[in-house]
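Worked example 2:
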Amino acid sequence: MITPMRRNEYRIVTTDSEKQSNWRTEISEAFRTPLELLTYLGLVDSELGTKADSEQEFKMLVPRSFAAKMKAGDPNDPLLRQVLPTCQERETGEEFSKDPLEEWPDDQATEGLLQKYRGRALLMPTAACAINCRYCFRRHFPHAPPTKESLHKTLEAIRSDKTLKEIILSGGDPLILRDESLFSVIDTLSSIPHVKRIRIHTRIPTVLPSRITENFIDKLESHQAEIIMVTHINHPNELDAETDSVLRKLGQTGIQLLNQTVLLKGINDRTETLVELSEQLFSQGILPYYLHLSDKVEGTQHLCVSVETARKIFRGMLRELPGYLVPRLVAEEPGMSSKTLII
């Protein structure tokens, strides 16, 4: 049962047996146009200069549970700015492109499998996400839902390549898959002797926490695979009592929880904000892992933070935090053998 509350609240009242269907319902009821979201928050379009729905190549998608964390009436809310399409997306410098990391699949031998670094490969079992972040570096990526045949071919390619020690599930967001589909992939990967670790990259715990059902927790806890989950959380306002409950349950399964954050102009580009984020992450069982400079993808220029500003923010974090709470400041460059540390 979905229970509407006052404008800036939204919660799901469930029994355990209802949860599987309810998170799917949340996706179907997500905000998909700027007007819907702005009306919900008591804002008007003239304050923000949004892109009309017909002008959006990369469509808006915002679950109501995530929107409920936004401050009503605040056009500068840091969660709103992560997801609201604006006319600033038309501003693009020469160094910005649709494929800044050169990931597009034209040169990929196997559909849905991307290898950039030695010993690791990225498997994209879905093109779908629970939320469309405006800074997404794959916002122009020619995603196509994998077929059973193409997924089988991809998994067989992994089986035949004994240099692969770790498989990273990304996309899209792998947790948008139903449990049966997701664990079918995990089961197959864990049966391959040379695959030592499976890493899941996801926004789900903070943008759609109802997806983390008891059934999902049970399957994760009983699995023999070495699983690492990398959450993608950019601002302390994304964390609350509900995420604390979900993340603690995930941690109790024995998996390692790490977080990566994208440094975004006007959203989290202050030392104080990122210090608070690291503290809150650790209090909810997550270790800060990476602080990324945003990739220079077309349509995201207004969100990019300069290297000089990033260094200044990072030095402030070093002063304020113990070393284990300071994520590595990195950038990703095409053709490099690893991420580039910014020091």
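The two ends are 50 Å apart (CA to CA). The CA atoms of residues 129 and 335 lie 26 Å apart.
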